[in-house]
Amino acid sequence: QVQLVESGGGLVQPGGSLRLSCAASGSDFSIYNMGWYRQAPGKQRELVAGITKRGITIYADSVKGRFTISRDNANNMVVLQMNTLKAEDTAVYYCNAVLGIFDSRLGYWGQGTQVTVSS
């Protein structure tokens, strides 16, 4: 098993930046594919960005060029740098660890952190 704790959410103005961090514990972090998902009110949870155990990254089209995911296996951390934030980025963001494919029904989850983009 792996335990995940997110931090770094908050309120930011449109065009601003936030950095989300996810600290993992309890298992061998390096074997997991790590993802950031988000869920807005009334919408399904969606994959925002993922990074495989080999360091391959994927992004939702809506965040390409604005968000960057990275991982630090030595410190059991995954980070989502979010730039040029838009109102539509408002959601609860969840960290996910999975041994296989990225799927919102699979893996281990953190408790979530709220990101609100508003003027």
Q: Tell me the major beta sheet.
A: 7 strands, mixed
Number of DSSP helices?
0
Assembly context of the chains: single chain
The proportion of strand residues reads over 45%
| Residue-averaged pLDDT | 96
Quote the distance from N terminus to C terminus: 40 Å
Shape: globular
Helical content (DSSP H or I, runs of 4+): under 10%
Outline the low-pLDDT stretches.
none
Structural class: mainly beta
Radius of gyration: 13 Å
Number of strands: 11
Order of helices and strands: EEEEEEEEEEE
Task: Describe this structure in a few short sentences.
The protein is an all-beta fold and 119 residues long. The chain is built from no helices and 11 strands. It is globular and about 40 Å long.
How does this model look, in words?
The chain has strands at residues 3-7, 10-12, 18-25, 33-39, 46-51, 57-59, 67-72, 77-82, 91-98, 108-109, 113-117. It is mainly β and 119 residues long. Strand 7 (67-72) and strand 8 (77-82) form a beta hairpin. The model has no long low-confidence stretch (mean pLDDT 96).
Task: Give the topology, please.
Layout: E1 3-7, E2 10-12, E3 18-25, E4 33-39, E5 46-51, E6 57-59, E7 67-72, E8 77-82, E9 91-98, E10 108-109, E11 113-117
Parallel strand pairs: 2-11
Antiparallel strand pairs: 1-3, 3-8, 4-5, 4-9, 5-6, 7-8, 9-10, 9-11
Brief descriptors of the model:
119 residues; globular; mainly beta; single chain; 7-stranded mixed beta sheet
